[in-house]
Amino acid sequence: MDKSEANKNRTLLGTCAGVSSAVMLLPGVSTVGETAAVWPVLASVVLFVVVNQLVVTLPADVRRTPPPRLLALGAAGVVQDALILWGIHWIAGQVGYGLEAASLASVLLGGLIVRVVTLGFLALPVPGRVADARTR
After folding, report:
1. What's the pTM?
2. Which of 54, 59, 112, 127 could, after both became Cys, cross-link 65 (CB 3.0–4.6 A)?
3. What's the DSSP call for residue 126?
4. How many CA atoms lie within 13 A of 101 on its CB side?
């Protein structure tokens, strides 16, 4: 598995874990609809992944990115994720299915949680690359 494929997989897992964490941790973010709670979360994850693939605000390598650049990309990513969550909230109000945010603070905290978890997943080392670095 090459580096870009590993980053895409970790971004996908981080986004899924981040959206799930925001729904579980924040009392102001909840699911809308009469189905099981997992389907609105998965639908929201799909929207997050699509928008995050179209507008990339993630560093290429989290571990080697200088701190000022990482902070700038992180701040832009928090705003992006908060806007996505706000859009999902608006869509949920129109169709009655998705995620609902109670306030602007919930939207901003949800965006922060999603971005921090995604960056955390990107910071995890790729097992094959550690062995390659030692043999060089």
Report:
1. 0.86
2. 59
3. P
4. 22
DSSP 60-120: S-GGGS-HHHHHHHHHHHHHHHHHHHHHHHHHHHHHS-EEEESSHHHHHHHHHHHHHHHHH
What are the boundaries of each domain within the chain?
Answer: 3-58+66-129
**115, 7 contact by CB (below 8 A):** no
Residue 31, SS3 per DSSP: strand
**pLDDT tens readout for residues 52-105:** 889 988 888 888 999 999 999 999 999 999 999 999 999 988 988 889 999 999
**Residues 61, 47: Cα–Cα separation, whole Å:** 24
CA-based diameter of the chain, in Å? 56
